[in-house]
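Review form for a predicted model. The reviewer records the input and the model, then writes brief findings.
Reviewer: anonymous (R2)
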Amino acid sequence: MAAPATTQLSIGDINLAATLRSTAILPGDPTVRLEPGRFVRATITPAGTGEIRVVWADGVADVEAWGDGAAWLIDRAPRLLGLEDDVSGFDPDGP
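Model under review:
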């Protein structure tokens, strides 16, 4: 098995469990595993199949990806984790 593509990202106080929960298509989705501090997903990318694993603690996420789509997954990891979201103007207590 080839070595994984990796990156480490600063996530601050983002609640990754809540952010990543929505990636499961249905309850019991066999392509997604979400546990406290750990997320794994198998998926199809434009570059081919891939698997991404995110492990986080203390404001840092370690991301690893495997398969033909590994580089594609690593490149998009910040978006998956919500790091590129624009929350300006977001009001959770809105009307």
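Findings: The helical segments are 16-21, 70-80.
Further findings: The chain has a mean pLDDT of 92.
Recommendation: see findings above.
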